[in-house]
Fold this protein.
Amino acid sequence: MDQYDRHPQAAVEAAEWVLRLQHQKVTHSDRAEYLQWLRKSPLHVAEMLRLSGVYRKLADFPSWKEIAPLELPLEAAPVPVHAS
Amino acid sequence: MRTRVAEERLTEWFHWFRRWRAPLRKYLNTRWSVDASDLDDVAQEVFLRLLRYNNMEVIEHPQAYLFKMAANVAGEWAMRCRHRYLYDASWLDDLPADSDPEHEVAQEAAHQQLRRALADLPPRQREILRLLYGEGFTRAQIAERLNISERIVKRDLINAYCTLRTVLGDEIALQTVVRSGG
């Protein structure tokens, strides 16, 4: 999990759930597992609520057209990393 | 090309939180005078208690459970705090009234805040969000477009969500300022 280490574990897990639930096929056992995860800790519920606020803002954002697309090099790109 | 694919693919479980979060907070704030700084705590308690219920039924009839539970929790909360107002059930009528000017001002402020937050994200994370929410790409399509693996798309998304979760965290404070200024 070191790839997410700057963020709290519960936040990462909530984000993983968002991705998982957005995926095409969500099975009954996925849902059961999700519910189990939510019940495990109040923190999980808090993080999911918080993230649902973020999701809502992204989904309702009216100005995506104003966000400049990333310019892609023609060939396979070395991943642009924050160069500061 | 699919449109609003992220929106459409939400299952009721996640959708449920998303859908009811705002009305619940509004209800708690306007009807129960729950302080803005306490809103998240109270809302969290409401959702927590709901999760202990028969969950399928709650998901199918959220409003009936949600606001009943909210009234209970807010009532208890009010007893602990100094607010002791009790309200009748007429609040149900004005819940969906989301189109008031204050709301619009707050919404514009929220858009501005999101614009700034997006500008501060690493470029690839921003691009992935743009493709997902702005263009309706799937994660697989994004991976192909950016010539990266789906795994990286997923990781970037998670990092972006986690960052935005922190950056957009002062939403409540902001909306409170807007509201009290009116």
User: Anything to note?
Assistant: The helical segments of chain A are 9-22, 28-40, 42-60.
